[in-house]
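Risk mitigation, structural track. In case the binding assays with pyridoxal-5'-phosphate fail to produce interpretable data, a predicted complex structure has been prepared as a fallback.
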Amino acid sequence: MIKPFANKVWLSTPTMHGEELTYMTEAYQTNWMSTIGQNINEVEKLASDYVGTKYAVGLSAGTAALHLAVKLAGVKRGAKVFCSDMTFAATVNPVVYEGGVPVFIDSERETWNMDPVALEKAFSLYPEVKTVIMVHLYGTPGKIEQIKAICDRHGATLIEDAAESLGATYNGKQTGSFGQFNVISFNGNKIITGSSGGMLLTDDEEAANKVRKWSTQSREAAPWYQHEEPGYNYRMSNVIAGVVRGQFPYLGEHIARKKAIYQRYQEGFKGLPVSMNPYIEKEMEPNFWLSCLLVDKDAMCKQARTATEASFEKEPGKTCPTEILEKLAAYNAEGRPIWKPMHMQPIYKDCDFIFVGDTPANEDIFERGLCLPSDITMTIEEQDTVIEIVKSCFK
Ligand SMILES: *Cc1c(COP(=O)(O)O)cnc(C)c1O
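Fallback model:
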């Protein structure tokens, strides 16, 4: 008999180490409690050195960074933007803030990220498009070199949403360093956190300076508040930066622990009709932010999802994400469905969606996939219990 967890086992929570408090306290004691200070300077340097871009600008959130990246790319009212389809809505919403029109691109099955073949098809349909936003989902790099080459060939600006993939590499190069304007996030559940916060990364000095200006209300150099363009209150707080500064030295350790969790699941699920979120071993090293499960097609029981509810019909030897998620919750563990593709979202139902082949990969991955508890502090025993819970769903 499997016993429910006494303490909830989470999907992904902040993991603190102590130094965060030191730097926050420093901000407090020196009274640099606003959006200027040593923590911001240091953390911008840490991030740009680590990822390998010339500039990093600390902002209030990854979403804010995406918004300013979309502005830098020059997206104007009515302009189409090619976007990853299977992602968190924050990847796409900033396009709409600027009046742009997302066109969603399906994923390939080798990494669950933007399919270069579908992207090429999209350019053949809409050769005028000048901006591409691609995400590295769950910490697994997409086929970024191919995607960058396609963007270059079509003269399009590439924005990388590396919010989930800080520390992941493609052919030894960090995600967040391939696009013209790239985004990382320090939201509470990411691989490292500031409690909130994000950054825009770029090699373009002029762009970095614009982001600094826009994020602090677009003041012109003048003795009074002089404004020539709209501004935003998007700058990172020096207190938040203190948390990020304390976390940065532990990024490698976090990745190692997430990888161990992924590998333990992989081992534990051997023999079950499932697979995990895939990656191309020769080319990429993910940060293993979340471990995900995909139930084999012929092991799926019937599952139905309306706009707001899920149900399933139990069949012996078969299961589905809805059953696994319900069972995890019953045992006091947190899982999550795969990000519901943007082209299936009511808000984006009128947007075009480009895929190759007979059926979209993303609808299938959404149907059969889920995120498992991937919290860094999960013990081996707790993880083994999660594995047992999953196994029991196939009874
Ligand atoms: C978390 C996340 C964001 C947004 O970052 P915030 O810092 O929460 O605003 C953007 N894109 C993806 C893929 C994310 O997971």
